[in-house]
Fold each of these.
Amino acid sequence: MAVLPPPTNHNNMKSIQKRNRGFTLIELLVVISIIAMLAASGFAGYSKIMPGVKASTASKTGRDIFTMLSAWAADNDQTFPVATQYSNDAFKELFKKQLVDTEKLFAIAGDAWHETSPSGDKKGPDNNIGTSPDYDQALMPGECAWAYTTGLETASNSLLPLLANGFSETVGTYTKEKNKKGGVFNGMKNAWVSVTGSAKVGDLSPDFKCMEKKGTQTVDVFSIDWGTNPDDVKNPQG
């Protein structure tokens, strides 16, 4: 008696064939589109967060610079060093007093202020400070990314800004163009340190100025409205 083959289960065959056929072109395009949308939303979030993170890191460096300035002031009738034309002028005094021996403290990674440094790119200081007593190679053009308010004392109004990351060519104003001076935080944030050493990350206005609450108003930190004399605020030398 002949043995008949088992009956074919057409439903199972169709299920196996469906599993083995892979993705259709349309399905692949849908998956790629979803991945692209997720990547775009993640990049947008990253772009918004990172300027604040970088500014926060810079503000801590600014606090270290403040510590050196305070030590200088302690030996000079509680008056911070004078900057005649550029912030570099004041910071060089710290080298002469041997309060600091590295230019790296005055750099901000990726800042366009460093494009005119001896290395010719945004890497910043070459750490060649020269020799005692003048240290005439310290903080040459392009080796400093910090602005400075001259004429202040340790007893000055505690709200006043002593340090800030370098502005655009217009002192007091930043830019959103990262490849230009004042754009290192994408025109979203800035880092500044008050005359009493309070390190801050400021929010920028639509016209790229550092704004903080003063009483019931939000005002520009580097303006008369805040109490700052704009003429006393000095950019780095670039």
Note: The CA atoms of residues 34 and 234 lie 49 Å apart.
Amino acid sequence: MSRTRQGYPPEFRRQMVDLVHAGRSPAELAREFEPTAQSIRNWLAQSERNAGRGDGGVTTAEREELNRLRRENRQLRLEREILSKAAAWFARETNAIPSQGSGS
């Protein structure tokens, strides 16, 4: 079974981005610290997006809002499904509609 590593803390990511801005290369930082050069480049690109200078990708705030809205949407779908089943059950109990059984 594969082990996954915990994500790097935001402060560590900010420090890596600051070091790149100070003139160090992602490859150099990757040799000195644990993350890969690609991870550091990804953090740099995300930092640029968050500052409004990026490539037009989704900012961290937009990603958090999107995740929140997806969770809310899942919850609303579940609640709607439960209410639909409850309404059908109550309708059958009050004999408003015939049951879907075989009748025997």
Note: The chain is about 65% helix and 0% strand.
Amino acid sequence: MDIAIKIHLLVVIPAILLGLLNLVLSKGTRFHKINGKIWACLMLLTSLSSFFIMPTGSLSWLHLFAIVVIVSVSVGVVAIRKRRKRLHIRCMLGAYIGTIISAVFAAAIPGRLLHEVVSKNIF
């Protein structure tokens, strides 16, 4: 397995779990803030690492999700620093949902590595 894929999986799995925690637990707490900073870093690393994963030799439409996540997380961080809570919530929720959607697509599309891993382990 390519090192870029290993790095991508190493950061995206905890990002999905930490993101879910921040969505369901109390907002504004010390835990939420620390967890959110870690999650934001993991999301940016996940997105950046995706640009080194090119099974067809070039970027694909799935890489658009990475661009959206980079922008969304960045705007969300700036928004909360400016106390724009609604914008922060929309950006972070959007980034999280986008990550879940891209993971589902990556797992569902035949020929992609994640699809092969999932289909061999499940079926």
Note: The mean pLDDT is 90.
